[in-house]
Amino acid sequence: MAEFPSKVSTRTSSPAPGAGASASVLRPDLGFVRSSFGVLMLLQLALGLLVWALIADTPYHLYPAYGWVMFVAVFLWLVTIVFFTIYLFQLHMKLYMVPWPLVFMIFNVTATVLYITAFITCSAAVDQTSLKGSRPYNQRSAASFFACLVMITYGVSAFFSFQAWRGEGSNAATSQMAGGYA
């Protein structure tokens, strides 16, 4: 058997000061904000905020139906903020082991289904819980309208994320160059 050499010469070096600092800086990707996914997420955030703000300004705690609408609106609003932050700062590129197109598609499909139930619940409860022409009636009606719009934006996002997951409309090279969003 060959003997392991008794002396092994190793050389180590440390990076120059400040060389690794630029790699850890988070910079927003403004291209994402201009993309279809970015615009849809901004719409979802704005419209979702309107839904839960309008409901929260009424005595919703007296009616269980509005508790469900509030849960859906606030929960999906917060999760959308998390996804928006992940894509804005390109954290999805650093967490490459996560299948982001699949995760994003599942989230959008789930959000669409949840907002369908919230829209139906909110719309059905307006007449039963408010007097026509009163302030709570108008706010709950407006919340139903905006819930419908948010439902549509999540549905469109689900369609686009399904296409991105399947890889339709582009090849692997263009999807890599685009940062994973259209």
TrEMBL record:
Subcellular location: Apical cell membrane; Myelin membrane
GO cellular component: apical plasma membrane; myelin sheath
TM segment ranges: 37-55, 67-89, 101-121, 141-162
Record domain MARVEL: where: 32-166
Span list, region Disordered: 1-21
Membrane topology: Multi-pass membrane protein
Keywords assigned: Cell membrane, Membrane, Transmembrane, Transmembrane helix
GO biological process, one term: myelination
GO MF, any single term: structural constituent of myelin sheath
Subunit structure: Forms oligomers.
Full protein name: Plasmolipin
Species this chain originates from: Heterocephalus glaber
Source taxonomy: Eukaryota, Metazoa, Chordata, Craniata, Vertebrata
